[in-house]
Amino acid sequence: MALGRANGDGSRRSAKARLDEAVGLARAIDLEVVAAEIARMARPVPSTLLGSGTVKTFGEMISEKGIGLVVIDAALSPVQQRNLERRWQAKVIDRTGLILEIFGARARTHEGRLQVELAALSYQRSRLVRSWTHLERQRGGFGFLGGPGESQLEIDRRLIGERIARLKRELEDVKRTRSLHREARRRVPYPVVALVGYTNAGKSTLFNRLTRAEVTAEDMLFATLDPTMRRLELPSGRKAILSDTVGFISDLPTQLVAAFRATLEEVTEAEVVVHVRDAAHPDTAAQREDVLGVLGELGLSALAEDGEGVVEAMNKIDLLDPAARASLVNQTLRNAEVVAISAATGEGCETLLDVLDRRLTAESRAMRLDVPLGDGRTLAWVYEHGEVLGRRDDDEVAHLSVRLSEADLARLRYRQRLH
Asked: Which end of the chain is more exposed for a tag (fewer CB within 10 A), N or C?
């Protein structure tokens, strides 16, 4: 059973949209949703979040339908969670717990599993409260589990703390490895284009369309968790690296923002960020604000402020009615950084590639290069990766006027050091 919460908290979304998203999250891990209801309240109740009348009404429904799990689309304190479980005689989880369950089920890489476990343990540690009677048993120890008189609660808290510390050390190793990989890419650098967006906006479908890859792309929240990178061919012949990242979501658990910082650092290294938006979703504007908010939390304040520096790919235009589609197309004509696309049909994707090509070219600069005529491989490389503006040859050297990106210039210098 999924419970959506509607109150006067100033949320940008409608109660129904929030409930639909909660149902989608539950179904993302194959839960059977037998009932979905909106709980309206004037103010939260400290002991149960919901008012006594609401708790009673839903309790009767839970008993009648034989419901074993209730998902509440809000943050529950440990006490609220325990009290609701006692009243309803059913397992209760909140939005954070549900998202953590999804991430735990979907993470495939070693790094992804480490990040999920760290987030889950941080969340679990906050659930350890003295009012949980089954953790109050006194337990003797052998030195490594705890001394005589140490409560089970203290043991659990200490063991979780030790595991969290160990996971953080392992993730630091992952971070250093990623840094080495980025340094290797700088030596043979391609510019990086990162896809970001709200979960289920169509990032993986667009990734597959642009790179001809076969990344999992389903009509499901959080279908992609682990980052994927592939080579991208641009219309000018320039090559780039396209990175597909985990989808964002409103009220993303703070534990996950912190835990996935290492993965999302790929975004911080990108020359261009493409914000893939679901143009057909009724809450697309609110989703945009959520994504920019997470970018801000990651330290990408320049991108988060009004989306400056971000190319917006308005996806799923094939699902729009003619009037909405025409309005969106007019918007893109006024703003060169907004592109209307359908990743499913391919419409507009060539235009998006042109925009990316132009953005990367804008970061290039003109320079003079002197290349020995006998170094045919370097000459061919310059013609492939740069824009040759002019050329004059003498007996031994080709004098070139070339426009190159900073990344390609670094790559050329590295090649020349090897020769």
From this structure: C
Check pLDDT > 70 for residue 123.
Answer: yes
Predicted local distance difference test score (pLDDT) of residue 17? 85
Strand partners, 338: 312
How long, in residues, is the chain? 419
The better pLDDT of the pair 234, 175 is held by 234
Instruction: Select from 281, 320, 337 the least CA-distant residue to 328.
Output: 320
CA–CA gap between residue 291 and residue 252 (Å, rounded): 10
pLDDT of residue 136: 38
26-35, 241-250, 393-402: which has the minimum mean pLDDT? 241-250
Please check whether residue 139 is in contact with residue 192, taking contact to mean a CB–CB distance below 8 angstroms.
no
> Which residues does 14 contact at the CB level (< 8 Å), separation at least 6?
282, 283
Q: What is the pLDDT of residues 346-382, one digit of tens each?
A: 999 999 999 998 888 776 777 889 999 999 989 988 8
Per-residue confidence at 419, pLDDT binned at 50, 70, 90? low
Cα–Cα nearest to 133, from 70, 95, 86, 88? 86
Q: What percent of the chain has pLDDT over 90?
A: 30
Alpha carbons within 13 angstroms on the beta-carbon side of residue 90 total: 21
Answer yes or no: CATH 3.40.50.300 is held by domain 191-361.
yes
151: which strand partners? 138
Q: Are 117 and 174 in contact (CB under 8 A)?
A: no
Q: Note whether 103 and 111 are within 8 A (CB).
A: no
- 47 has pLDDT over 90: yes
Q: How far apart are CA 385 and CA 408, in angstroms?
A: 7
- CATH 2.60.120.20 correct for 2-95: no
pTM score, two decimals?
A: 0.73
Interatomic CA distance for residues 357 and 404, integer angstroms: 13
